[in-house]
Amino acid sequence: MTQLERARADEVTEAMERVAEREKEDTEFVRAQVADGQAVIPANDHHDALDPMIIGREFSTKVNANIGNSDETSDLEGELRKLHTAVHYGADTVMDLSTGEGLDPIREANVEHSPVPVGTVPIYEAVKRAGSPEEITHELLLDVIEKQAEQGVDYMTIHAGVLMEHLPLTDGRKTGIVSRGGSLLAKWMEENGMENPLYTKFEEICEIFREHDVTFSLGDGLRPGCLADASDEAQFAELETLGELTRTAWDHGVQVMVEGPGHVPMDQVADNVERQQDVCDGAPFYVLGPLVTDVAPGYDHITSAIGATEAGRAGAAMLCYVTPKEHLGLPEEEDVREGLAAYRIAAHAADVANGREGARDWDDALSEARYAFDWNEQFDLALDPERARSYHDQTLPGDNYREARFCSMCGVEFCSMRIDQDAREAGEMSDIADETDLAGSVAAEVNRPPTGTHDGGRAIREAIDDQWEPPEQSVDD
């Protein structure tokens, strides 16, 4: 039985108990959310290294990191390094989007060593095996999906919502079909003159997923690739189909989340989230970005984190990170780090804005350390301690400056906090309370430091020949 079926049978599983612990929630609440399809626990029966987590709008906002190789770059060791970087900097799930050589060994290594759920897009492997998109057969697709399920993949992006009748709706777009899966399936339908095989074989895919408890991530193959294409007829026609497929998967006892758009103007983000929740009966929404402007190649981790914060505030359950390399190249370790920093900020900011219980305790504790000039505590509480420490020490190195009541921005004479403290000590103003008990906080695990809840990841590091260290900076393990 799947997590969904067991929840419907009023059973609280070990995974649900672990999730309740991590989220600081009641186990019965977790079970009910899963039973109603409002949350998913991606947990393939074959993923032995997994530490279960939950994705749903009533829980802390989660972040996914895309990793993977291409024909041009990266190998198994490089991918394991990316996996460790992702886990170290706080990814709640990872997606292996490899399209190059060694797909099976890379996927198997990720599942073997990853403590977080692993997702894939099986159409990529199907294309590699067939040689070209139009040569894919229904049997090959099902074979690839079943093999990946048996390997322990926790969730898969299935672009089953792209139908032949939707394709003409993309003709007036500026950027056409930008989803890799969507474009591959569009080519297959045009060349073969048949309906999307993932749609026609959807119930058979449901049976495979049910056997191994794989979660659907219903792909948005017609998502907009620029602001001009956002919220158009093609996007919303596919969304209607995804709502139908969500209910079909639930009928088969399979967990579902739904993927959302990539480029959306700021004023349309909340409407997109609310529309998906309505059409898909509250199934968790998993959004890429969204990017709120198209003018910043090289900085799209920022343009998208702005939209991601708004999406999380509006109810998106998981945010798929975007790195500085978006639209430009395959992310490397440092890009993974930058993307995760931006998206952990977005997710946490959304949780604070939504009044998630205890979420702001982290902010308050760091602010108290900052005001007290407790530099080491401030570094330890930082989202990225190595980066914070490095930036401080670039201009004021040495242990003596770790006790200084100023930094290099204002210097001694113009430090506002030092001036404020002196005034209060002189009795000119009242003392400030600084009583945040972060250790006793009721915040979910992802809203408390350290950022990487699986920090250390020794199983991953042991699979890598050289000692792992954060990109560009070493850290004492």
UniProtKB/TrEMBL annotation:
A GO BP entry: thiamine biosynthetic process
Annotated residues for binding of substrate: 66, 95, 124, 159, 179-181, 220-223, 259, 286
Region named Disordered: 445-477
Positions of [4Fe-4S] cluster binding: 407, 410, 415
Cofactor: binding details: Binds 1 [4Fe-4S] cluster per subunit. The cluster is coordinated with 3 cysteines and an exchangeable S-adenosyl-L-methionine.
Chain sites annotated for binding Zn(2+): 263, 327
Record keywords: 4Fe-4S, Iron, Iron-sulfur, Lyase, Metal-binding, S-adenosyl-L-methionine, Thiamine biosynthesis, Zinc
Pfam families recorded: ThiC_Rad_SAM
Pathway: Cofactor biosynthesis; thiamine diphosphate biosynthesis
PANTHER family the UniProt entry points to: PHOSPHOMETHYLPYRIMIDINE SYNTHASE, CHLOROPLASTIC (PTHR30557:SF1), THIAMINE BIOSYNTHESIS PROTEIN THIC (PTHR30557)
Database matches in HAMAP family: ThiC
Function: Catalyzes the synthesis of the hydroxymethylpyrimidine phosphate (HMP-P) moiety of thiamine from aminoimidazole ribotide (AIR) in a radical S-adenosyl-L-methionine (SAM)-dependent reaction.
Protein name: Phosphomethylpyrimidine synthase
Naturally occurring in which organism (per UniProt): Halomicrobium zhouii
Organism phylogeny: Archaea, Methanobacteriati, Methanobacteriota, Stenosarchaea group, Halobacteria
GN (gene name): thiC
